[in-house]
Structures are given as structure tokens and as C-alpha cells.
Design a protein that fits this description.
Four copies of one chain form a homotetramer.
Chain A (H helix, E strand, L loop, with lengths): L6 E6 L6 H10 L6 E7 L5 H18 L4 E5 L2 H5 L4 E4 L5 H14 L9 H25 L4 E4 L4 H11 L3 E4 L3 H13 L6 E8 L2 E9 L2 E2 L1 H6 L16 H7 L2 E2 L4 H4 L1 H13 L4 H16 L19 H14 L3 E8 L12 E9 L2 E4 L9 H21 L2 H10 L6 H14 L14
Parallel strand pairs in A: 1-2, 1-4, 2-3, 4-5, 5-6
Antiparallel strand pairs in A: 7-8, 8-9, 8-10, 11-12, 12-13
Helix pairs in contact in A: 1-2, 1-13, 4-5, 4-12, 4-16, 5-6, 5-14, 6-14, 14-15, 15-16
Cofactor (chains A, B, C, D): NAD(+)
Protein name (chains A, B, C, D): 6-phospho-beta-glucosidase
Keywords (chains A, B, C, D): Cobalt, Glycosidase, Hydrolase, Iron, Manganese, Metal-binding, NAD, Nickel
């Protein structure tokens, strides 16, 4: 990278409503991350949105006065060729598929969620082959590029890339940075004075240490979990006696596992009232694109922060800056395990604190692993491994095994029935499962 | 052992209805296992049964003409002193406690089972401290003795002994020998021409290879699972597509995990009809003891084979013979993991094929581990580790963690409510949970 | 194997003077190991010896009256096609190369030995490519065959096959069976009443337990090491205080490492007197072949037992019988580590007790590992890994690393000079090191 | 630490000639490391030197105007009580013992060196018990203190503390920082623009990556090793072909292993010329103390930099600053392995890059491990483990095993003779080896 004049960045899924945040990040941090070319790329059916958000990006850059070129394209290969960083933020099947992921399981009395459970599995089956295609382009056209993957289920996608490609890839989630921000707000200190240790997988982590200016605040945080949640997860309350004996703060996604009954009830209530998280998001997005279309708008609109994926772009820009400058700072990332959790294979993806060196992230050894968490981590990882291999092969037997072994799925019988319905509903996006041979 | 004239054997829980089988085994195999003294020991409240079954034992020995002394006693220390083998087959709280283990969970919509789930956990909490007391006696009075543990949950009891005592201990179950017998019958060959490889934990194993005279019959056995069951597990049918893609034969206990909904329905149906497995067993036992009381009876009555625990004594006598003679034959036992399942700690108990040497069993490396099984094994082991430590310490927080992390328990909320009711119902047998300090 | 009428066996290097022992074994154990075809195969330059020893083999079989066909051939592929077992006993470069392996290092003040040190390394460089060629034939023509490898350095050859072929291979040495025989003679018991536990690598093992009829005799054996040696290793005496604190009996090959100075002195003395082990062996062989040529000879001549490689054939026939019948007995073999020595990679070859099942040997976990031995095992394994990769690639850099890191080589400077001379002396047998590119 | 007004620091062996460097460091970095009390402690026989160097320290502080109290004492417990940091820099037996460590092995044709080989072993036997006594005081009087250990052999001392005490301890060496300085000078960049990865043990490491401003300069450094040496290691030249195929830069201490013959020759030449490194150091020290005695001296004299232990104090102050402030920067330290080198036990000390957090150093995973180095690392670690246990127990058998298994010791026979002479020569400092029972 050193010899070029500035960096080339390709954003796959560049028509996303999140893009203005990313652009704002590039503008703010231009000094440490000199972007020369920003390529926003999307598929044909996303061209309309790409143009709207891309033109906003151009107006933002113009206002900044910085020498960043913004390119809009549907030619993925052109965008990737020679890139220094590729980021992905895609949604195969769009919000309609998400709606099905969330609603079909409910019919079977099972949690319907976009990144875990049967819904997350379907998202993985649809998404992993597409991402591996992107990786083939990167291997060919930008073999030294870093792939920053925000596409969910980010942990599984990252593991698929580790196993089935040679691309240097890192998975990213906004949950860890969100926890840091929350503690920073609570204790009125700068975020860099908060150090939290994360153990587990993407959307399945436990926080075992929260140091604020060097003092351990875990017990205080366990006693006050009200603020630690996310837009897309209902707000059931943790049992204090449970948290105290767990001695770790679970990710809010763990409510699906620890409070399955209440979470399911809430999902069914919402569903019966006709509320549909995918629909809500769809409407928010439509409103955002209406704003973005305003040719006088030259900044990221505030409303974007309500969108749910706060800090995603901050996480992305932070990571690119650290990789580019070799800052050796600590970030929480999804990377290959390589012995950090000694009960998982080296090529399993985990979510863990890493030192970000010029040569990539080095995961830090864990100082505490909650004994209670180990089995659940391994049970979910087993499902993930099976589902990844199912996605790559289109093997129905592997898909049955994955579904039947997900801890949220109550029996083999339900697993198979639900799988059949969900495969059928996703037929369009799962060619590997519906080739003549496999039927 | 070599210098003594014959062996001393102590049977803790000697008043059990199984004892005649054991005595029959000692008589049949006297040549390879020369028993000099057989000590049947029980607690005061079991004295009546001990006398009935003990006198039958004496009549059986007398008929055989062998120089075996049979001693009946409630003095455990006298029985253990200088023993070569100690075997345990006890039921702390007796069948009444089992009845509660099986029925209370049903109120919460949870599987009620004597060795797994909330019921198995209660059994572990009651039993482990008693077994560790037996171990203290063995450490003091018979430090070279082998402890053969049949007391359920046998895997957890064995692990507790590994972790908290120095006694040389082996856990035993009749399920593996049962599978061998079934294949032997199906293929009309001698049992020693069947070789099966077991992977997993006690009551949670998968069979990955069934060689009959050197030919792999796994696929055939997967296609015909009808015969592979047990008296105490209802006979739901396996889904053939699931078995085929699993590529391993699951223990019938795994139906509680793989067919939770059907198994629960069956349990609730039985319960609503007033059927109660503990009651059924109680009645069978009463009938057996009536038979045993017949002073003309000099043999093990055939009815004992209906009792459900078939092959237990065969397993015990086989193991003692192999240890005594150093036969280096292969048996399926519960022993310390020591790296066999590389994702579990060395001191976890596992159920695995072992070569039985004069110096104890050496576990054999596994040739296949079903990828689907790994997560569930680890999830149940995590529960077991937490429950063992709860049993030893009486720590309520550990008990909450154990219950909440059992894969059959649907949520933290239910876990805590159910635990509270079950602890209270077992108060008499759980002094460590009800000391003044811990309340 | 089950469907055929008897077994096909191919012996690569069938013109060896050892062959009559092997033939005697097949005759003695025909009932348990029904050999239908025995193919003795050798290279063109060995045809003369092949014919002599092959005709003796035919006479021996004829005398036995058994329906074994003996084939003599230089067509390796024909011999291997459809074989059930392939055994190898070859010497690339013959005794002349061995002479150079043993003498060149002495010029540099370094131990000259045929299986370890610089000499063993040269033997590995010459032999491994040839064995891997044999493996390619087996992969193609007899993919289900077991390869029993006696070719030294047997541990390194076995590891090369594990890493660079798919052939099912087992390495064999006569040292373990020799130790058993020695203890059996000393204590006047049958060999199967002796159980010894071996830890380490081929020609680099320690014995940590010697049970004679179940009683541990290690201390007695440590106090009386006189009998434990071999024809090809000079008889320096162990220091008793050292053995006692080591708490394990080292292989006699370990004298090269533990008594380097004395062993070197003895080698130099012999060398200066004109004594040359390779020459001695050559003369013994010539005498043997003279005997074999006697057309009246119909039995293995007694003189063969003086040859040095006693028990090799016994070891081979034992192993074939156990594999064929699935006897599950315990033998000491060279197999893939797979976690037995947890500090070595899974694909390292180790010498370890195994249960020999129908599906191959399963290594037994070690009950004791001498703490002192660990570093030396790893140092020699590191050399072996480097030398194997050098043999396969012909990479001079790897050869330098291997030589320089062998514990018997005193410095990098000597390593490189000695390597240069030895490579040159072996030029004819090392085409990979002398291609135009690599010069 | 947060609640106190400034830090208390205890320097065990405070009378060392290095102390002025440490004091200079505290003065320069007072802002980030506010030292309130500096306790220099020494034994009675070192009181004269302690007073000289302590009074210089007082004058240096006075000149700085900072509110640091300097205390001189022989009461170790008073110095340690309540300390935040304890550092040790001691030499049990003083330079006379070092002289014997270096000269006795030469009689046996073995390298005589103060930190490795027989000499280093003797130093370990003398030093470890004393350090463990210091640790007992820290456990009692300053349980939260960090122990920074500079006392050689620093790796073995650190491992002894890990195994036999509960003190939070870190071992430090000046070699890593020296390499950074050398690269920084060579490439004319600030030291923090150089990133080097170290693999191995104290005084036995390999450098596998040297990034200068993000560019890998390893190959250049391998080609130009002239500058990379130390005062106490003779300057034999590396073989370039060896370094190139090793693909790592070895520590200059590795010359004792890789160029044993040349290094030994050089040692014998010096010895025969009457040159004695211990004597040279002794004279340098006398000159330094003469300078220190000058009551007008208020600064660290330049001559100290010639002393050989350059950067020791810089390393110490850097580490204290990072621990105190939780800077999360990367330093090369001796810490518990905990899985970083997966072939060594978790409690082995290794020398590795660590992120220094407020809660202590977290070792970073290694990105490359030179395959050639693995065996030698393990061989030396095996010696270290045996020698540590010998030091703690005074067990002669363990000492024989340690000596005989050191890669620099040529045979068991020499090991025992040399050990006997060296134990006798160190009798005064090895009470555990000369109690009535052990004689």
C-alpha cells in the first residue's frame, strides 16, 4: 500500500442506507486514512438505491473539499481490482427474505430471528455462496486486499471465508463497540478509557471484564443491565441472581437462548398484532432514501442513527485506520480461533479482542472464560460448522443436521418440517439445494 | 492382590434386588475370579432387604459348593477394609425420590427423567456427597481397591470421584453391553465377534462403528433401530433421514434430546393416566423380594431379568475378571478423558472403549467423532461440571448455573423456579444446601 | 479380504537374507494367516540373490506341503497388484552406502551410525523417495493393502508415508519384541506374561514399565541392563545413578546420545583397527547366501539368527495375523502420533503400544512419560521432520537445517562441511539434490 | 494503586552498579510514573556498595527537584511492605561464583557461560531459592505488587516463581530492546517504528519478523548480522547459508548452541591467556563505584553504558509505566506460556511479545514459528524444568538429569563428574544439596 498515492476502497452493497455513515467516517479521518477512490458497487436490482445514496456520497465529499473520487457501479470486478480494502454489507433476498426468516419459525413455536436460529441459518445458506464468489474476485483481482465483512451472520460468513478462500478477512459487529460506548456514557469517561474483554462467538458473546480507567466495573454493570440492548432485540429483563452467579454480562442476543420462552412470547404477540421487524426496517429505509434524494443534502442525516446499526461505520473506519497505520490498538473482531478457545478448532471464527497490527489482527489470550458458557458456545459452533458446510455443498443431510442441532430448535421432527418449508420459501436464493441431482 | 488367598469384595448397596445376578456371576466365574469374601453392606433402613437378598446369596453359594464367605453388614468400614474391589449400587432417597425427580419437572413442561435433565441433576446432588464419603473410607481402609461404580448418574459420579478423591474408580453402564448383545442376536454371532465404537458420555453416547466379524454393519443397524431400546425409555421412532445424515447410532437416552417434544408428550400422557415409572419399579421390586424370601430358592429367579438393568452384573464381573487377570480385552467404560475427546478437559468423565490392563483401563483413541454430536456432548458436560461442583459445595449459584445450562431446560426463569421446588422437595438429602449459612 | 481364498503378500526387497525367517513364519502360522501367494520382488541388480533365497523359500514351502505359491519377480507392480499385505525391507545403495554412512562422520568427530545421526539422515534421503514410489504403486494397484515397513530409518520412512501418501502403513522394529524376549527369559515366563510400555520414537524410546505377570520389574531391570543390547550397538555400560534418577530404561540406541564420547571413541578405535560393521555384515550375508544355495536345504538355517535382526519376521507375521483376525492384542508399532505425545504434531510417527484391530492399530495412551526424555524426543523429531522434507524436495537448505539441528552434530560449521561430503558421496542415489536447477 | 499518592518501589539488590540508570529512568518519566518512595535494599555484605550507589541516587533525585524519597536498607521486609513494584537484580555468590561457573566447565571441554550450560545451571541452583524467599515476603507484605525480575537466568527464575509462588511476576531481559535499538539505528527511524517478533525462551530466542515502518526487513538483517551482539558473547560469525535457510535471526546467545566448537575454542583461548570475563566485569564495577563515590557527581556517569547490561533500566521503567497506566503497548517479556508455544506446558516461561495491560501482560500469538527451532527450544526447556525442580528440592537425581540433558553437555559421564565438582565449589550457596540427609 505504501507506494500508492492514497487507498482504493470497494464497498460491496454500496447502495445500503448505511453508506453515508461510512462516507462521513472517511471524510473525518482522511488524515490517517487517505482514501483516493471509493467504489460503491451494487447489483442491478439495487441500482436505484445505489444512485440515490451514491449521489449523496458525492455531495458529502464535494463539501469536504477532499480529493476522494466516488465511483458508482454494478461491475463488481472493476470495483475490486486493485482495492486495498473491500467491505461488504449485503442482504441476499433483501428485507422480504428477512421477513420470512423471522416469521416461518414462529409457526413451529420457534424463535424467528435474522441472525440466529432457523432464520439465521437460512440467511447463512443464502449469503455464504455469494460472499465466496466475492472472495474469488478478490483472490484474483486484489489478493493483498483486506476484506472487512459486516454481512450477517458475520461470524459464520467469516468462518466460511477462512475455510473456503485465501482472502484476508475480518468479521465485524457493532455490538462490542456499543458496549464500550454504553460504559463510556455511564461512567462519563472517554471510550478509550474503557477496556472490556469479550468471550465467545458473533452474537453469542459474554463480557467477563469491564475496566473503566483501570477499575473493574463488571459487578456494577451486572447490577444495571437496563441500558445494554439493541434496537432489534426485545427488552426482557435479566434475572439478577442468574447474572450474579454467571459472573459475566451476556450479549443481548443471548436472551434468545436464556429467556427463550419470554422472547418467543413477545415475538408471537408482535406477530399477532401484525408487527414485523422487517417491515419496520423497510419503512425506516424508505424514509431515509427519501431524505437522501434531497439534492440539497450534503451531510449524513441524523435520522440514520435511529436505524439500529449504530457504530458499524465507526467500527469499519477504525479498523481500516489501524490496519493501514499499524497502530497496535485493541479492537473486538471476528477472526480465526487459532487456539484462543482451546475447545474449538483453529479455523473456527470467534469474536475476541485483537491487537490490530499492520499485518492483521492478533487475537489476545482470554483471561477468564465463564465455565457456564463453554457448552453453549460449542453447541452453537457445531450448528454453525454444519450450516456453513451445508451452504457450500447444498447437502440436504448437512442442513438437517445443522437445523436439528441448533439449541433453539426443540426436536428433530420440527427441525425437518421447518427446514422443508424454509428451503422452499428460499428456493430462488438456494440454487445448490435445488439442482436436478439433489431433488 | 497376588499374595492373598482369593479376593475380598464389598458391595455398597448390597440389599439391592440386583445382587443375585452379581452372586451368580461370581459363582460362574470363580475360576478366573476367586472370591474369598463377599461383603454385602447397606444402611440401617435397608437392613430388611439386605437380609432377604443376603440369605438368598448364601443359599446360592452353598448350592455351588464354592469356598466363598458371604457377610451381611451395616458397618461399611468393616466391609471396605482391605477389599480388592468395591462396587456401589445405591439410590439415595430411594424410589420415592426418584418419583419426585420424574414428576416435578413435568409441571414446568420439562422432561422428568432419573439420570438426565432436572431429575438427574437432583439425583447427582443427593448421591455425589455420599459416594465421596465412601471414597474417603476406601482411601483410608483399602487404598489399592478398585471402585466399580454403577450408581447413577454414573458419569457424573465417576467425574466427581476423579476430581475430589484419590480412589481408583471406573464407572459402568449396561447400555454398551446391551448394544453388543443386540447385534450379537441380530447377526447370530458370539458377542466377542461384535466390535462397537462408542463416543460420548454416560447416557449420551453415539455408536460410530459396529463391526460384526470384521464387517461394518452400522448402516444396517441405522436402518433397523427397532430393537435398540431399554425398559426405562419410551419407544419413539427415529427419523431415518436424520439417522442417515448423522452417520451414527444414538443411545436411546438421546431421544430425550432429539425428540424432546414427543418424549415429553408421552411422559405427560403416562403421568396423567397415573402411570409412574418409579411406582412400576417399586412393585416389580416388591415382587422380587417376595420371591427372594422363599427359603427353598437357591438360584437367581428368571423374573429378575425383566427388571430393566440387564447385564449390569455381567458388566461388573467381566470388569473385575479383566482387571484381576490383566486380560487386555476391550470394554466400554466411564473413565477420565485424558485427551480422547480433545475438546473436553482431561479430568472429564467420558464413556469410551478401553483396554483393561492389570493396571486399569486405558481408553482407546476414537477413529470417528460425529461432527454433529460435539456441541451437545460439550453442552451436557458443561451442565455436569457445574452440577458436580454444586453437589460438592452446596452452592446455590452453581446449582442455578447447572440447571439453566442443561439443554433440556428451556429458560433461566423456569430453571430457577423448578430448582427451588426440587431443592425443597429433596431438603432431607441435601444438607449442604440447607445449612444456616447458605440460607 | 474376507471374500478371497487366502491372502496375497508382496515382499519388496524379497532377495534379503531375512526372507527365510519370514517364510518360516508364514508356514508356522498358516492356520491363522492363510497365505495363498507370496511375491518376492527385487530390483535387477538383486536378481541373483533373489533367485537363491527365493528357491530356498520354494523348497521350504514344498516341504511344508501347504498350498502357498511363491513368485519371484522384478516386476514390482505385478507383485503389488491386489496384494493384502506389502512388506518392505530394502537398502538403497546396499552395504557400500552403509559403509560410507558409518565412516564419513568419523572424520568430523561425529558418530557414524546407519539409522541415526548423519548416517541415518543419508539413509533417509536415499530411501524415502523410493518408498514413496512404492506407495504410489500401492495407491493405484492395492489401495486396501496394509504396508508393513521394516526399512530403516523405519520411523522417518513411516512418517514420510503418513505425510505424503494415502497408503495404510505401519512401521516395525525388532527392538521392542527383543526387550520382551529378554524379560521373558530373565523371569522364565511366557512372552505374553510380560507387558512393557514404550515411549518415544523408533530407535529412540524409553521403557517406563515392565510388568512380569502383573508385577512391576522396572527397578530390577534398571539394576541389570547387561543383557539389553543388540548386535549392531557397542556395549558401553549405563551409569546406575543416571538410570535410577531417569526412572526409565533407555533403548540401547540411546547410548549414542547419552554416552556420545565413549561410543565415538569405540567407533574410532574399531575404524582405526580396520573393523567396519558394514563389512562384517556383508561377510555374514555372503556366508548365508552360500548356505541358501545348497539345493538340499529345506529349512531356515540356524546361522540366520546370528544376523542381528532377530525377531523381525516374528514381528511381521504377528502383525499380519492380528490385522487379519482382528485379535485386539497389544504390539509396539510405529504409527501416527494423533495426540499420544501431546507435544508432537498428530502426523509425527512415534513408537508406541497399540491395540491391533481389524481396522488397524489404535495407539494406547501413555501412563508415564519420563520428564527428562521429552526434550530429546522433540529435538530428534525436529531433525526428522526437516530431513523428511529435504528427502521429498531435494532442498539443500532443508538438508542443512536437518543436519545442523541433529543433537549428535556439534555445530553448524561441521554440519555443512559433512553434509557436502556426504551428499557428494551419495550423488548416485540422490537425484533430487543434483538436478541442474538445484546445483 | 489508584488511591495512593505516588508509588512505592523496592529494588532488591539495590547496591548494584546498574542502579543509577534506574534512578535516571524514574526521574525522566516521573510524570507517567510518579514514584513516591524508592527503597534500595541489599544484604549486609553489600552495604558498602549500597551506601555509595544509594547516596549517588539521593544526589540525582535532589538535583531533579522531584518529591521522591530514597531509602537505603538491609531490611528486605520493610522495603517490600506495601510496595507497588519490586524489582530484583541480584547475584548470589557474587562475581567469584560467576568466575567458577565460567571456568570449571572448560576443564571438561564444555562451554562455560553464566546463564546457560553448566554455569547457568549452577546460577539457577544458587538463585532460585533466594528469589522464592523474596516471593514469600511479597505474598505476605505486598500481595498486589508486581515483581519485575532481572536476575539471571531470568527465564528459569520466572518459571520457578510461576510454579512455586503466587506473586505476579514478569521476567525481563535487555536483549529484545537491544535488537529494536539496533534496527532503529540501522534504518534511522524511531524505535517505536520497529516491530520485531520474538519466539523462544530467555537467552534462546529467534526473531522471525522485523518490520521497519511496516516493511519486513528480516532478510536484510539476516544478511548483515555484524551489529547484533553483546558485550558478554564473543563475536563468531554466522554462516549465511544457514541463516538464510533458518529464515529467522537467532539470538546471539544461540551461538553457544550453533557454533559450540568455535565458541569453546574462543573461551579456552581467553582462559589460557588468563582473560576472565568475571574479572573484567569486576574491574569495570570497581571503577564505576569509584566514580559513584564522588560527592559532586549528580548524574549517571557515561561509563555505565559500557557495562554490558545496556537498556535494562529502560526496559524496567517502560514496563512499570505501561502497567501503571494500562497503555496496552507491546513489549517482549518472560511470562507463562499459556498455549502460545503449543508444545510447551502452560506454566513454562517463554520470551514473547505481550500487550501490557493494566492487569498485566497478555502474550500475543506467534505468527511464525521456525520449524528448525522447535526441538532445541524443547530440549533446553526440559533441562530448565529439571534444574528448577532440582533447585527447589535439592534432589541430586534431578540435578543429574538436568545436567545430562542440557544440549551443551556431551555425555552422562561428563555430566556427573562436572556436576560433582560444581556442586562442591558452590557448597556454601546450596544448603539444600548438603543437608545431612542428602549427603
Amino acid at each position: 500500500m505504501a507506494t500508492k498515492q492514497g487507498l482504493k476502497i470497494a464497498v460491496i452493497g454500496g447502495g445500503s442506507s448505511y453508506t453515508p455513515e461510512l462516507v462521513e467516517g472517511f471524510i473525518l479521518h482522511y488524515n490517517e486514512l487517505p482514501v483516493r477512490e471509493l467504489w460503491l458497487v451494487d447489483i442491478d436490482s439495487g441500482l436505484h438505491k445505489l444512485n440515490i445514496v451514491g449521489n449523496l456520497a458525492k455531495r458529502m465529499v464535494e463539501k469536504s473539499g477532499l480529493p476522494i473520487e466516488v465511483h458508482l457501479t454494478t461491475d463488481r470486478r472493476q470495483a475490486i481490482a486493485g482495492a486495498d480494502f473491500v467491505s461488504t454489507q449485503m442482504r441476499v433476498g433483501m428485507l422480504a427474505a428477512r421477513g420470512r426468516d423471522e416469521s416461518i419459525p414462529l409457526k413451529y413455536g420457534v424463535i424467528g430471528q435474522e441472525t440466529t436460529g432457523p432464520g439465521g441459518m437460512m440467511k447463512a445458506l443464502r449469503t455464504i455462496p455469494v460472499l465466496l464468489d466475492v472472495c474469488k474476485d478478490i483472490e484474483e483481482l486484489a489478493p493483498d486486499a483486506w476484506l472487512l465483512n459486516f454481512t450477517n451472520p458475520a461470524g459464520m460468513v467469516t468462518e466460511a471465508i477462512i475455510k473456503y478462500s485465501n482472502v484476508k478477512s475480518i468479521g465485524l459487529c457493532n455490538a462490542p463497540i456499543g458496549l464500550i460506548k454504553q460504559a463510556s456514557a455511564k461512567y462519563q469517561v472517554a471510550p478509550d478509557r474503557v477496556y472490556a474483554e469479550f468471550v465467545g462467538l458473533n452474537h453469542l458473546h459474554w463480557i467477563t471484564r469491564i475496566d473503566v480507567e483501570g477499575e473493574d466495573k463488571l459487578d456494577e454493570m451486572l447490577a444495571d443491565t437496563a441500558g445494554y440492548s439493541a434496537k432489534n432485540v426485545p427488552a426482557c429483563e435479566w434475572n439478577p441472581e442468574f447474572l450474579q452467579s454467571l459472573r459475566a454480562l451476556p450479549s443481548y442476543y443471548l436472551k434468545y437462548f436464556y429467556m427463550t420462552d419470554e422472547m418467543l412470547k413477545e415475538q408471537l404477540d408482535s406477530h399477532n398484532k401484525g408487527i414485523n421487524r422487517a417491515e419496520v426496517v423497510k419503512r425506516v429505509e424508505e424514509e431515509l432514501f427519501e431524505l437522501y434524494s434531497d439534492v440539497d443534502l450534503q451531510d449524513k442525516p441524523k435520522q440514520l442513527e435511529q436505524r439500529g446499526g449504530a457504530f458499524y461505520s465507526e467500527a469499519a473506519v477504525n479498523l481500516m485506520r489501524s490496519l493501514y497505520n499499524g497502530t497496535n490498538d485493541i479492537q473486538t473482531l471476528n477472526v480465526a480461533n487459532n487456539g484462543i478457545l482451546d475447545f474449538l478448532p483453529d479455523n473456527a471464527s470467534i469474536e475476541v479482542n485483537c491487537v490490530v497490527t499492520k499485518n492483521g489482527p492478533l487475537p489476545l489470550p482470554l483471561t477468564k472464560i465463564p465455565p457456564s458458557a463453554v457448552g453453549l458456545i460449542h453447541a452453537v459452533k457445531t450448528y454453525e460448522q454444519l450450516a456453513i458446510d451445508a451452504a457450500v455443498t447444498g447437502d440436504r443431510g448437512l442442513a438437517i443436521q445443522a437445523m436439528a442441532h441448533h439449541p433453539l430448535v426443540p426436536s428433530v421432527g420440527i427441525a425437518i418440517k421447518m427446514l422443508d418449508e424454509m428451503l422452499e420459501a428460499n428456493k430462488e436464493y438456494l440454487p445448490r439445494f435445488f439442482t436436478p441431482e439433489s431433488v
